[in-house]
Amino acid sequence: MDGTPLDDLDTAILAALADDARATFAQIGARVALSAPAVKRRVDRLRERGVIRGYTVRLDPAALGWTTEAFVELFCQGSTSPTTMRTAVERYPEVVAASTVTGDVDVVVQVRARDMRHLEQVVERLAAEPFVHRTRSTVVLSALVRRPDVPALPGEP
Fold first, then answer.
1. β-pair partners for 135
2. Which pTM does this prediction carry?
């Protein structure tokens, strides 16, 4: 993104797309009081600036059989590079997200599995990575809040 602040119309268009990425430019235009061609120009500009990175569908993991979720903390040996960590964890289809963090743990990995046995297998595979000294896992009982990448658009509550 080029750092140019978003104006109120851009923010309203992004909110409309966040609600329904399949909405037509005419539908978005009706919501934000612009013509469909004006909405298209703004969306094109937002894509060019890198504000809009793509369009996607939100799936229900449980409906697809991924009923168990956990956060697995990786404690790494020595000074393992983030590139090495990324290369390893992105090979796992069960990994939803992974981040290097501050504190005594090096990496927090969000994992989805079919059941507890499957989760155990994933944790065992992660623990077997050559740079992993030990792991600590926390199973999610219930998700209290789930948001897309951006918690709220500028100007929204």
1. 74
2. 0.78
